[in-house]
Amino acid sequence: MTTFSDLNLNPKVLKAVQEAGYETPTPIQAGAIPPALEGRDVLGIAQTGTGKTAGFTLPMLSLLARGRARARMPRSLVLCPTRELAAQVAENFDTYSKHLKLTKALLIGGVSFKEQDKLIDKGVDVLIATPGRLLDHFERGKLLLTGVQIMVVDEADRMLDMGFIPDIERIFSLTPFTRQTLFFSATMAPEIERITNTFLTAPARIEVARQATASETIEQQVVMFQPSRRDRADSEKRAVLRALIDAEGDACTNAIVFCNRKVDVDIVAKSLRKYGYDAAPIHGDLDQSQRTRTLDAFRAGELRILVASDVAARGLDVPSVSHVFNFDVPGHPEDYVHRIGRTGRAGRSGKALTICNPRDEKALAAVEALIQKEIPRLPDPTAGAGRAPESEGPAEAQERAPRTSRARARSRGGARKAPPPPAESQPTPEPRAAEAPRAQERRDERRERGSGGRDDSGPGIVGMGDHLPGFIAMSFEERRAG
Question: Which residues, in sequence order, are CB contacts of 283 under 8 Å at separation 6+?
Answer without folding.
Answer: 262, 265, 266, 308, 309, 311
